[in-house]
Amino acid sequence: MARATKAQSEATERRLRQVARELFAEHGYAAVGLERVAEAAGVTRGAVYHHFGDKLGLFRAVLTDAHAVIADAVAQAAPGVGWPALKDGSAAFLRAAVQPGIRRIVLVDGPAVVGWESWRRMDSQHSAHLLAEGLAALDDLAVDPGAAGALLGGAMNEAAIWIADGGEPELAEAALNRMIDSLRR
């Protein structure tokens, strides 16, 4: 039996992540088994174990990808620093976090499956670190940047869940902008 090339192996891993993301987003972590992922990806269950070790390993990879999608959206929307960039990045976070392929993975299953501390570490490596850097760059921030980041991050996560549950995105963004304005000296 011929061994897969590195390119084939990488393509298989990408395909598994893509298929798993779709399944986890639609059905939730608990309802998706590795056999289902393998079948949908057109590979054996052994291929899933080879690349990710187990279902949790696969979910962690998908969760990391989803966090990266949000961080990329924030970075693209707010490439600079300052109050307008903070608002633009925060609005981009809300828009990205409520996307169907993201919300359930990042905001619902993520903390429950990997644990709160692990989820927070992943978040801090992605969009939360962008928020912290943006706040630290403000010379007229009226409060501690760490406290502001914790509060704004929590507010944005809750606002994203609220929007996904039927809340009006414009109302959430307006409230978030008022919160941001209140932090200015």
UniProtKB/TrEMBL annotation:
Record-linked InterPro entries: Homeodomain-like_sf, HTH-type_TetR-like_transc_reg, HTH_TetR, Rv0078-like_C
Keyword Transcription regulation: yes
The keyword Chaperone appears for this protein: no
Pfam family, one: TetR_C_41
Ranges where the HTH tetR-type domain occurs: 10-70
Residues annotated to bind DNA: 33-52
Keywords assigned by UniProt, alphabetized: DNA-binding, Transcription, Transcription regulation
Organism, scientific name: Occultella gossypii
The protein's name: TetR family transcriptional regulator
